[in-house]
Amino acid sequence: MMWTPDHTFAYRANRSVDDAVNLALHSILQHLDSPGTYARILFVDFSSAFNTIRPALLQDKLSQLSVPDSLCSVLSPLLFSLYTNCCTSSHQSVKLIKFADDTTLIGLISNGDETAYRRESQPLCPPLPSPITIADSFRFLGTTITRDLKWEPTISSLIKKAQQRMFFLRKLRKLKLPPRMLAQFYTAIIESILTSSITVWYAGATVRDRLRLQRIVRAAEKVIGCRLPSIQDLEIYRSRRCAGRITADPSHPGHGLFSPLPSGRRLRSIRTKTSRYTNSFFPSAIRLLNTK
């Protein structure tokens, strides 16, 4: 599907929600590593997007691709991506990331010059009667992004949800379910919550928050009566799998960040200055792959 812009993540093989968030954060943190910089992020969610396509404009694009008319009625989400494929950024300091009907515009501002960001955001923003409110946090593709780029709110939310589900695990134990079934319940209902988008936030989590997450695992082990994978082990496994998927796909927008050294045995480290950039996905994933 060569017509799809490089930074479109929905309906593409080997691209995920976490990839979109990680790439957005990488652009921001890399930029903030330099003095005199800041970033602005505009989140756009098109209401009822899949039902508002103008057929006449879409038909022109479909005819160029020789798509049979019989396929059009079952491809609404994909067709929406095709419909909006011309929505791209024309300035290197403005990144545009799309996931279905969620569009994120990232302005990498230096020396207070927002000209390019405002020019690129204008077509996406209708005139508003009052100033736009700058939020302290926003839920971006399932992950809470805060103004200070810290992960405590995201982790606290996941812990709260996991604790609520622990109630059901204890109820099932009282019903004398065998440990194997309890473990399956834990993996599907509790572990899946604790590890939601873990490649995005775990490397940047504080020691305190990591211990809070692991306490949920220890509590589940006592209920089930068997050892369970630690949160850290799960993060290592998923980060390696995610990094391996990206390195194997030259078309992935993050592929170039995994650059091999001349020896071919190790990857080139990403130069970082701040700890939050050092502890983001791409630099930490490269360190992880280099320690195999």
UniProtKB/TrEMBL annotation:
Transmembrane segments: 181-204
Ribonucleoprotein as UniProt keyword: no
GO molecular function terms listed in the Swiss-Prot or TrEMBL record: 2-oxoglutarate-dependent dioxygenase activity; methyltransferase activity
Species in which this protein is naturally found: Takifugu flavidus
Protein's UniProt keywords contain Transcription regulation: no
Name of this protein: Alkylated DNA repair protein AlkB homologue 8 N-terminal domain-containing protein
Keyword terms: Membrane, Transmembrane, Transmembrane helix
Every Alkylated DNA repair protein AlkB homologue 8 N-terminal domain range: 151-192
Cited InterPro entries: AlkB_hom8_N (IPR015095)
